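I am writing to request your help with a piece of structural work I have in hand. I set the record out below, with my sincere thanks for your time.
___
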Amino acid sequence: MADEKQEPSGFKVVDRRAFTVEGSPREENPPEVKPDARRPDAMRADAPPSERELQQDASEPGDADLLNEPSGFETLVSYLSTTTMFQLGLIPGPGGERIPPDMPNAQRSIDLLEVLQDKTRGNLTTKESRLLEEVLYELRMTFVELQKRQARKGR
């Protein structure tokens, strides 16, 4: 490998540290790095966004819209319940494959939702409280049903 010919890659490494290896201050200032003229403006970090990019950002919902939405209590409950359903094997994997139930972690996730219910009692709106109660009820019933099925299979 040491005998292989190295071709220039177009990258230049510049040491911009203020101190030398020995720890003394550098006397020379590092050279300014100029933008690569071969690189299109759209790819340069210092290039301003184009008119098209600005229009695209304003017209298409995307990550920016999600960042502006408040992550409320409903989002938290939804996240935790979806995770629990995945752990219970109710949601297919990324490739559509069936995921076997992970009962210990599903139990932990249900317990976590119960902790959330206990710690927020009296501080939730009626809608939030009802959502959490319904989600917990459904997850508990599903958990018990899956435990029964596993016990029947084990006989």
